[in-house]
Design a protein that fits this description.
By secondary structure, the protein is mainly β. It has 2 domains: about 1-10 and about 85-200, Immunoglobulin-like (Sandwich), CATH 2.60.40.1220; about 215-390, Immunoglobulin-like. The protein has one helix spanning about 245-250, and strands at about 35, 55, 75, 80-85, 90-95, 110, 135, 150, 160, 170-175, 190-195, 200, 220, 230-235, 235-245, 255-270, 280-290, 295-300, 305-310, 320, 325-330, 340-350, 355-360, 375-380.
């Protein structure tokens, strides 16, 4: 999207009568003979090449009431309309306003309609909004500190800004340009503020340490009251967790299970005693953790059966304390896709006590014996939506 600011001519308007009641010079009919400055006020003439004693032709006369203060480098027509004299405008800002999924390490590029004086294009080196170009996520109450000066293009029309730190997850940023930025001739820029902003993609790195540092945007109710699921991701990992009294119960027949979608997968889940759910999506990998905290296993569908996957959770990838168990799965291990297809839950495989509960998504099934899955997650890992802002599928 191109962000453009319309030039506002400071001396615009139609032809006007002079304030002193006289007729406009441009509207008078003048003879072909030269008119001296003794006859007509010299302010009514272009000063280019004319001194106090020179003469001027009638074609050089202009309206005495036209305000020339905003047209320092331009010319004016006889009807008082400024042409080419306004300060430079912002032609484009990238990333465009309204775009989402922007990399947190993005640079910001501002393009002007004219060559600028680079020294005037100042940036913020702290959260104080003092620069000629400002970037903010809170209406310019505070601003993003930049890593250094703006980098100008060869023609001094385009300036690149580099934030001092990655921009915040799922956060919208706007750009503002003040008249402190001036053209190469010293004409102040037209003030500009982007209509809307660009939004950084969602990301959150979770420490796998059994401490609940999940945000509200990553916290999900499940099909069972008092059982909470969590989902997050960053560039390298998908993070999952389950908080449940059954996690703390230490029962070796109780499992926290998760399925990940992928090409070449199957819609038939793993068998636990006599329970085998139909998944409603093709699952390629199956993660399971036993509630006595003695066994973690990842399986992969090989086209015929669920087998032990070539990758497993290692040190730093799983941690349980009390009612919370957390997992970390490398995105490269589950296909490195831009989309995460996921389902989680808890099940018990004990004879005559078999059941499944704590479905994530919440509406996937009604707790009970061997339910099939009616919903799953299809999460955009490159978008700006937080996990809870995604609707379940289908």
């Amino acid at each position: 999207m191109l962000l453009a600011l319309a030039a506002c001519a400071g001396g615009s308007g139609g032809g006007r009568d002079d304030d002193d009641g006289g007729d406009d010079v441009a509207d008078d009919t003048l003879g072909s003979t030269n008119v001296t400055n003794d006859t007509i006020d010299p302010t009514n003439f272009s000063t280019t090449g004319v001194d106090d004693t020179s003469t001027a032709t009638a074609s050089e006369a202009t309206d005495t009431d036209v305000d020339t203060s905003a047209t320092a480098s331009g010319t004016e027509t006889s009807d008082g309309t400024a042409t080419g004299g306004d300060g430079p405008t912002v032609l484009e800002v990238t990333p465009d306003a309204g775009t989402t999924g922007i990399d947190p390490d993005t640079t910001i590029v501002v393009t002007f309609s004219a060559a600028m004086a680079p020294a005037s294009v100042t940036l913020d080196d702290s959260s104080a909004c003092e620069g000629a170009i400002q970037v903010s996520d809170d209406g310019f109450t505070t601003c993003v500190a930049m890593a250094g000066d703006a980098i100008a293009s060869d023609d001094d029309t385009t300036f690149t800004l580099t934030p001092a730190a990655p921009l915040a997850s799922a956060t919208e940023y706007a750009v503002r340009v003040l008249a402190d930025a001036t053209s190469a001739e010293g004409v102040p820029a037209q003030p500009f503020e982007s209509a809307g902003g660009f939004t950084i993609r969602y990301f959150h790195t979770i420490e796998i340490d059994g401490i609940d540092d999940w945000s509200a945007g990553e916290t999900f109710p499940t099909s069972t009251a008092g059982h909470i699921a969590f989902t997050a991701w960053d560039d390298q990992y998908v993070y999952l967790a389950m908080s449940s009294p059954d996690v703390a119960g230490g029962d070796g027949a109780t499992w926290v299970v998760a399925y990940f979608g992928g090409a070449g997968g199957t819609a038939s889940g793993q068998i636990y005693n006599t329970q085998q759910p139909e998944l409603l999506f093709d699952a390629r990998w199956h993660l399971r953790w036993r509630a006595d905290n003695t066994y973690t296993d990842v399986q992969e569908w090989d086209g015929d059966a669920w087998i032990t996957a070539p990758w497993q959770l290692g040190e730093g990838d799983v941690y349980q304390t009390g009612e919370l168990v957390e997992f970390r799965v490398a995105r490269s291990d589950i296909g490195d896709s831009d989309t995460l297809v996921l389902h989680m839950g808890i099940l018990r495989e004990a004879e005559l006590q078999e059941a499944s509960w704590a479905a994530h998504p919440q509406g996937s099934y009604v707790d009970g014996y061997d339910p099939d899955y009616a919903e799953y997650w299809e999460l955009d890992l490159l978008g700006s939506a937080q996990p809870v802002e995604h609707p379940p599928s289908p």
